[in-house]
Amino acid sequence: MKRTSRLSLYAATVLLALPSASAAAAGAGSGPFGVTVTAVASAHSARVGALFAAGRRDRLRGGHFCTASVVHSPHRDLIVTAAHCLGGGTAGELVFVPGYRDGEAPYGVWRVAKWFLPDGWAQGRDEDSDVAFAVVRDRGGEGVEDVVGGNRFVVGTAVGATAVTVTGYPNSREVPVSCSNKPRPHNRTQQRISCPGFGGGTSGSPWVDGEGQVVGVLGGHEDGGATADVSFSVVFGAEAAALYRESVGCDEPHGGSS
């Protein structure tokens, strides 16, 4: 079941046999649809990163367990991921590494200061509430968005209106993978996408449309899906919008280096 494989830090996973097709087109959300490739290093992929336990900050290789991405916020310090990636720990014990590749942190290691979970998830692990935000501390007066930029977080978009690009970090790889396709409704509150190879570690991967908007986060139904070939996301609505507003209004201090 993907419920276990999505999150496990140590589960044995098979190295994905990924096609060699160009990822450049996928980065624009314009196909080839349903083909998973290694994500090219770019300004856009730098906004996506891996989550690690804080104790792994000096030995990153092999330690990532979920994916997150930078979203625009007034304090320029906000990331979005799946709630099931954050719901079991303590604030301050995680770090975010944008653009992570092969054990290296090209844009620095950013300490998670505080996170925000929807009531539906905090009170009952409701799969329709599987989205979360986290504030990361600044480094030398710069926020993470100042360094890598951020995508807009939007709610209320029509499922499947446009193609999206999903980018994430499988546990079996030390570089991100990417795939573009059109989401489809699963039910009123969940959407799904067909992209192979999004198994353990890819929870929290952003679904970014051609306008640079995050319209989904890999998670939701069955913690993101029961197979690595079909993934799910909550359909963002009023609860996600309220959580975003709560997150950007956080009074948590942002100074100090981590």
UniProtKB/TrEMBL annotation:
Q: Where is this region: Disordered?
A: 176-206
The alphabetical list of record keywords is:
Signal
Which InterPro entries is this protein grouped with? Answer: Glutamyl_endopeptidase, Peptidase_S1_PA, Peptidase_S1_PA_chymotrypsin, TRYPSIN_HIS
Q: Which domain of life is it from?
A: Bacteria
Q: What's an example of a GO molecular-function annotation for this chain?
A: serine-type endopeptidase activity
Spans through the membrane: none
Q: Where is the signal peptide?
A: 1-25
| Gene3D superfamilies given in the database record | Trypsin-like serine proteases
One annotated GO biological process: proteolysis
List the PANTHER family. SERINE PROTEASE (PTHR15462)
Protein name per its UniProtKB record: Trypsin-like peptidase domain-containing protein
